[in-house]
């Protein structure tokens, strides 16, 4: 039997871990599909990830509309990122939205893709797509606030579509990550542990790639990306080994003295 308390405890830990490692700032968020009802999902209320501590800090929303259920109030305006991705891809059960500064340059510099350069980032694949909200019809409406937020179901659906569709498995996205021009990035996964892993290593790969590009320019060298085969193999490896860093990350935040998780770390 699925333990909902353990799922919510893991969601709280995910918020803490990604804040601890500077992947989430005060505005980032993580969601998980309800394991007892795939028609709803859980997302922290309008608060920084570091201070999420118990069931009272977590809202529940309908996947179909991202409308709150069970008296949820005070939710994120950008919950449509999560709801529309979960609606479009039944195989996705967890979503992370981040504003990590290590990744942001790759959202605004043309011709510089966030390609994987070491094995822990093979899941990124050969070309991480970039979603530019300014190019969408609803954002070009003069009545739409120019705040770059995914604050409507339509904008959420357009962002979700940027992940593409897996040709051999239409219930899954083609990409595990999408960049948002001048905003941040989103990663999707089959579970919380895997989503945290992807978010952490997307930011880590950005740091490594930036250093490699600068070093290559300084010495006249060339940055060597992973081959297509290496990306596939590394992605398969990373998917099944996500439990290993997860255990360490939970251990770190539980002993940091900074965070409170009333439900246990998962």
UniProtKB/TrEMBL annotation:
InterPro entries reported in the protein's UniProt record: Aldolase_class_II_sugar_metab (IPR050197), Aldolase_II/adducin_N (IPR001303), Aldolase_II/adducin_N_sf (IPR036409)
Stored SMART domains: Aldolase_II (SM01007)
Keywords, ordered alphabetically: Lyase, Metal-binding
Domain of life of the organism encoding this protein: Eukaryota
Domain Class II aldolase/adducin N-terminal, residue spans: 9-210
Cellular component, GO, one term: cytosol
One Pfam family linked to the record: Aldolase_II
One GO molecular-function entry: aldehyde-lyase activity
Example of a GO biological process term: pentose catabolic process
PANTHER family: 3-OXO-TETRONATE 4-PHOSPHATE DECARBOXYLASE-RELATED (PTHR22789:SF0), FUCULOSE PHOSPHATE ALDOLASE (PTHR22789)
Record's protein name: Arad-like aldolase/epimerase
Organism for this UniProt entry: Melanomma pulvis-pyrius CBS 109.77
